[in-house]
Design a protein that fits this description.
By secondary structure, this protein is an alpha/beta fold. It is built from 14 helices and eight strands. Helices cover 49% and strands 15% of the residues. Strands 1, 2, 3, 4, 5, 6, 7 and 8 form an eight-stranded mixed beta sheet that branches.
Amino acid sequence: MEYLDFELPIKELEEQLDKCQVIGEESAVDVSETCKKLTEKLEVTKKEIYKNLSPWQRVQLSRHPNRPYTLDYVKALAGDTFMELHGDRSVKDDKAIIGGLGKIGDQSFMFIGQQKGYNTKTRQYRNFGMANPEGYRKALRLMRMAEKFDIPVLTFVDTPGAYPGLEAEERGQGEAIARNIFEMCVLKVPIITVIIGEGASGGALGIGVGDRVMMMENSWYSVISPENCSTILWRSWDYKIEAASALKLTSKDMSNLNLVDGVIREPVGGAHFNREETFETVKKTVMEELAAIKELSVDKMIESRIAKYENMGVYKE
């Protein structure tokens, strides 16, 4: 387990607890009372740290290297039923976006999401979760396939943004994202979006329009990352903490502003501390939201989806 800077008190207590347990196992000394006190202190410390997280600390948690990524969720929810589909039928297969068919229980879904890597090699392979235009066009191809066969779409958003390279712009990055937003607004099947980590800019919106948009508790959703915001406003990355607070990018902020439809609670410490609990919570939430959407007719569903986005940013005195 890797620890962030503000988690170091937890790391120290866990190391002390491990040493205490080893001493008890390797000697005749009774350390049960000491272990009990350390365990109680550890639980108190965890609660104190995680209940008072700043926006920047939540950004750090959203990027935690042990945090589950899209394929982790897909494998946990769909298991062996998942069949990945590749390519946009035009340029190539973008590894930053994965997609395919799978089942949660007896319900089929078209799974689509940005995938980051687990180490240097896979991060390069996945382009750090930053999709090119062909990635968004692959996603759109799969959404249209889902519409053809009346299969709900489930998307997982986790990206620092769409790839900003020259070749991406030459192939129409902006058009690809705009096309996806337009097509997702009128797609004739339910769309559920879960922001599992970073939800940055148009890169997130390219697969982020849905009937229900849910945020994991320690994810963030914003037009720009705190670092880039700091660079633009202060000409330096040194003000990223202030930028994170000003951007109102946490799940609580997004929910209060009615920009997302709900927040999915995570285990104490984040999704990576108890993956099984996290996956079960997400599964339950997805199935509940799908059941609610299915009660609407197709026309009413699309009308409601469009109205939700049209009302965002409307200010009335």
